[in-house]
Amino acid sequence: MKKIGFLSFGHWSPQSRTRSAADALLETIDLAQAAEQLGADGAYVRVHHFARQLASPFPLLAAIGARTKRIEIGTAVIDMRYENPLYMAEDAGAADLIAGGRLQLGISRGSPEQVIDGWRYFGYQPAEGESDADMGRRHAEVLLDLLRGQGFAQPNPRPMFPNPPGLLRLEPYSEGLRDRIWWGAGSNATAVWAARLGMNLQSSTLKNDETGEPFHVQQAAQIRAYRDAWKQAGHTRTPRVSVSRSIFPLVDDRDRAYFGREGQQQDQIGYLDEQTRAIFGRSYAAEPDALIEQLKADEAIAEADTLLLTIPNQLGVDYNAHVIEAILTHVAPPLGWR
User: Which residue range or ranges hold the Luciferase-like domain (predicted)?
Assistant: First the structure.
């Protein structure tokens, strides 16, 4: 059994079916409801700042949580360079309580941005001798500590409202959320770091090109390194691992019109910055029988317990629900995912 969810970037533009920010937000809620009805397991959103995409995630996650009953809701990922960990702990706790403990919060040090050093506009600066990536990981460690729910703040001796005894923690506190934090790792080293800290692992459609092997082979090796580090750290619970993929079964004329032409059938190489060579995983689009055979060969999907389907949200709720249903109906059962 493999959990299957969708991942939306929430793109919007006046030229698409998703014409405004309001459309992107409301359609994401509608798609989460549709995905739950179809039997999917997760509704995840990507966070990008300074872009016509989804940004502030917690109001959206809370709304999805209030409109659904079973489906996991989450992020993949929130850029921690932009985050105040204390405010984030409060927002995450509230969203998780509204959803009844279904929040799966993916965080990371971030990715290439729309603007130069956008986190500076949010009021954050790396400390002396620290890179922006170091700052993002530091913010993440503060968040993890806060989510333990331990008191740390000295209470006012003359408070407006009565306090419980001892040091105070942030509220609202949601029990168990600390175990549902995921780290989006772009390298093997950061996957190992996440394992040591007890975070679940999210691995997307790109990673640092560390060996020159095909993307799915490198990603599978990253997952195995993560699990080895988890075991060595002595954690008692079983960690979760997700991978993201673009997968489109060609089952009707709409699918063939959108994705039937030869697309990105091979991995791509690019540079995230001057020093970082990255490998981008291929997309999958084929008739169901051919698609099943292609996916059987993907080593990283086989290693993961959760698959996030990156969706073309600008094509609308109905079409994306159709794609999810086609995968759950025609692809997942023969592969043993269902």
Answer: 12-256
